[in-house]
Amino acid sequence: LPGNARVQPQPVHKKADSFWRIGHRGFPHVAPENTIASFAKAVESGIDMVEFDVTMTRDGVPVVLHDKTLDRTTTGRGSVRRRTYSELQDLDAGSWFSTEFSDQKIPTLNDVLDFLKGKIAMNIEIKLEAVGLKMRGGIEQKVLQAVQKRGLTPHVVVSSFLPLAVKRIKKLCPEQSTALLLTRRPRRDPRVIADRVRADALHLPKEGVTAELIRIALSEGIPMRVFTVNAVKEMQKLLTWNVDGIFSDRADYFFKLTSGNGGPGLAM
Ligand code: G3P
Ligand code: MG
Questions:
Q1: Which of 27, 52, 125 has most ligand 1 atoms within 8 Å of CB, for mutation?
Q2: Out of 20, 189, 190, 209, which could bridge 217 as a Cys pair, Cβ 3.0 to 4.6 Å?
Q3: 148 sits in which H/E element
């Protein structure tokens, strides 16, 4: 690959436009976040990508869960990284949402990749607390190995709020598309921020984006994807600004949108 070419993910199914409709933690308004049930609903809906969070157990197994602790979304308690994977297997990760989903477990990264392979593109978000001192043998290498083993590299974006993790991913695998997550509106030029960690895109909170910022980033060739947008009106506005993608807990709303710039409409 030429030195600084930004690597962008490829859709699994051909899309009518370049915009990414991203299900945040799956399809969490109808099924519990970050479970296979939720990913199944996301796939059925016809969106383009699912985002999910990866953290690590005490014995080094990458698992898909958002919080540092088990309390909110499972029948367990306490911090995930103090538990072995076998201890997590007995937990129910669906009942908190509805008894209908009491069969849902905390999936491993491997479970999720096996399930989604060939169905939909993915954004794997590496959680801060999973990142260790070492790059080799750490979460970054485990994520890359799991993705590469299945030939999924072109359909995956790996992101993190931790710049170190993004940097390590690119160092280990330059062909892997990466994104740096920001917690607020960037103070510097998007290109400076992205280049510092060799990120291929920036993922920003909706409070941190303006039309001007998106315009600058676009002119620099840096795709901007925005989280977590759950109102049709706001989605529509961001689409008009030419954001590259939107993360939503209401990914069904993507089908209510019309085209931002005279291109093909998104409504099915
Ligand atoms: O990856 C986008 C978004 O998921 C980042 O925040 O806390 O929902 O993982 P969080
Ligand atoms: Mg996330």
A1: 125
A2: 190
A3: helix 139-149
